Amino acid sequence: MSEKDKIISLSATGIDTPGLVSKITNRIYELGGNIIDVEENCRRGLFSIFLIIDFSGSEHHMEQVEKALTVLGDETGLKTIFGAYEEAEIRYPARKERHIATILGEDKPGIIAKVSAFFHAYNINIETCKMIARGKFFSMEMGIDTGRILIQPGLSRDKTIEKMKSELKELCRDLNQSVVIQSEDVYRKGKKLVVFDVESTLIQESSIKSFLEKVCDQIRPADTKLSAVDNAGDSVHALIENARLLKGMPIADFEKFSSALELNPGALELIGILKSMGFKIALLSSGFNFFIRKIFEEAGVDYAFSNTLKTDDKGLITGELEEPVITSDKKQEILEFIMRVENLQPDQVIAVGDGSIRSHFIKNVGLSIAFKPDEKSIETDGVLSSDQIINMLYCLGMPKAELDKYLKTTHSQSPTQV
Amino acid sequence: MFCIQKEDVKLELEVVEVNSLFIHEKILPHMVEKLTWEFSNLADLENPIIIEQNGIILDGNHRAYVFRELKFKYIPVCRIDYFHKNTKLRYWFRLLSNVKEMKLIEDIARGMGAVFKEVRDRESLKRNLDHDRYSFGVQQGQTFALIRFGGNKVHDAVSAYEMVERVQEKLVQKGAKIDYIPCQHVYDEAFCKALKEKEVIIWTPQITKEMVIWAAREQKVFAPKTTRHLIPARPLNVNIPTQWFKENVSLEEINKRFSSFLKQKEIKQLAPGQVIDGRYYQEELFVFLDKKKEPVSGTQRGKK
């Protein structure tokens, strides 16, 4: 390095031991250098640091600096590389558009290679890449910059980014991985509310139909078997029809049997962890409220909206629903209502549904996650294809170790079997 | 007066003098402490207190008490029809933990001069309590018993609850811990199954609405956590500035202000059975929201 190269880059790697940062930075200070940029990492017992240092205020010759830094490498056992840093020669992208892509699923060779090749093909720069979980289960968070994305012929920049996101989801589906991609400013912005479309996420819609039939079988004589209407379309007709079928039955019996309704694995633990992270939780359902009440009583949530069956003085179901009936159209209205009560903007909301239009009832939320979507699903920020809804915590940047710690305190099993 | 009416349910919202209201239950000091801190720091009164036609407080005894203590002259109320078919009087039962055996309660009750009689089952206990409104019951596992004091100690609904309190106090002195549970929990099989060996439930006296009105008129006060009123509907999220009640204004003036404050809000009606801010509401809700601000159009923006 010559005397004019007063700004240098220094990288050092090696075995991590306590005091490395202190030794390096103190030596730089003694040499009269000013650190103008730094990034340090420790992974699996290995240490790496990258620094940009300005020695223009130093009384030392650059030759002496170079020697001293070489000695530092010998003293610390780190491999050091340094060189001149000419800011003018570094080409910054015209614009930075940071996104965070979280990929999770069963580990196998080639995932990182295929995803990084995909980004390369789009001329997307991978700026950071870190493993959140590794083992049988794999979760990786990539910080990417789409500032220099190759604009696709006939498409605008925004449409190109949309196309890229859609193709990334396809690639991850082929790799049997879940993926969530979100703009970094939205990712960083504090989310406050997680809203679950209950039937598609916390409980299985088909289980509600069979639950109603099972309970009715126990209450009514065998010759009057009930065949509940599948409420897959969230239609008012299906709701009213099911309410009508239950006419004359004691509501208490349904409340009593509701404990038999199975929740998806990890659902209660997920709510518990989200609450301890400070999120408000809302459940929206077009089902009957004894299901929701069960979740409310077991997990405690901040908001829960569902349909209530009217009963007479003896507690028998009248066959009618209390107004206003909650359908998918009403869900949007109710979510807007919660946001007004909580004074929240849409980008502070995380919406979890099954990827269908009816379960993602509000646009422009901060993060939309489709849990086990079918092929006809709408575009969401992320797709969770495993059975474990609790894995959505990785999309919020929670490392596996921390998740395990949370689960240990709730005496639950690790959710990492995908 | 601001009125919400839907079918046969009517909610009348207005401001009244705090001293015109009847507090019908004793006050819990820790609740007073919390509310005093909030209101002396001028936290909004989230919701009007619920009263019946004669000014008896059905929900909000503590808030009214603290308003009175802080020398606020007025308080917003929501008046409902106490005798509406959906206004129901329920009770708080006591869940006592760390009670070794029923014998302990029997000894305490007998020692205080009560008759202690074991009954066959839950239904039998319920029948007895329905028949004799001044007696109360105890339940431990599958053992049920009825406790009845003589007329010299229990002669009305208020004294019946006083004796419950005294039995309770003696149990607490012997190391029991107390919690309050809604009365219908004793019919919840999952809840009953989950009861531990040393847990006892006290079934409190099944008093009537008429008894509550009588006690309020007589200015007699029930033990804390006596009544649990289920009401047909409730206003929510009203958020009335408590600063108003420190001002020296007339009742007429403050009512005008309250009415116009409510008219500026948007009301969202919700069916019974919803959870809002962590609380389950069995009743229909009328939630007050600040009206959405309309975006200012280009032509309006420049106007002065």
Task: Explain the layout of strands and helices.
The complex is a heterodimer of chains A (418) and B (304).
Chain A lengths: L6 E9 L4 H11 L3 E10 L2 E9 L7 H15 L2 E6 L13 E9 L4 H11 L3 E9 L3 E9 L11 H18 L2 E7 H5 L4 E5 H4 L3 H15 L16 H10 L5 H7 L9 H10 L3 E9 H11 L3 E5 L1 E3 L5 E5 L6 H15 L6 E5 L13 E5 L10 E3 L7 H4 L4 H10 L9
Parallel strand pairs in A: 9-10, 9-14, 10-11, 14-15, 15-16
Antiparallel strand pairs in A: 1-3, 1-4, 2-3, 5-7, 5-8, 6-7, 8-16, 12-13
Chain B lengths: L1 E5 L2 E9 L11 H12 L8 E3 L5 E3 L1 H9 L4 E6 L8 E10 L4 H10 L3 E5 L2 H10 L4 E5 L2 E6 L8 H17 L3 E6 L6 H5 L6 E4 L5 H9 L9 E4 L2 E4 L14 H13 L1 E6 L3 E3 L2 E3 L2 E7 L7 H4 L3
Parallel strand pairs in B: 3-5, 13-17
Antiparallel strand pairs in B: 1-2, 2-5, 3-4, 6-10, 6-11, 6-12, 7-9, 8-9, 8-11, 14-17, 15-16
Q: What is the N-to-C order of secondary-structure elements of chain A (H for helix, E for strand)? A: EHEEHEEHEEHEHEHHHHHEHEEEHEEEHH
- CATH structural architecture of the largest domain in chain B: Alpha-Beta Complex
Number of helices of chain B: 9
Q: Note poorly predicted spans of chain A.
A: 412-418
Structural class of chain B: alpha+beta
Instruction: Tell me the number of structural domains of chain B.
Output: 2
Biggest interface between chains:
A-B, 27 and 23 residues
Task: Write the CATH architecture name of the largest domain in chain A.
Answer: 3-Layer(aba) Sandwich
Order of helices and strands of chain B: EEHEEHEEHEHEEHEHEHEEHEEEEH
Which range best describes the helical content of chain B: under 10%, 10-25%, 25-40%, 40-55%, 55-70% or over 70%? 25-40%
Tell me the distance between the termini of chain A. Answer: 53 Å
CATH superfamily of the largest domain in chain A: HAD superfamily/HAD-like
Q: Give the number of helices of chain A.
A: 14
**Overall 3D shape of chain A:** elongated
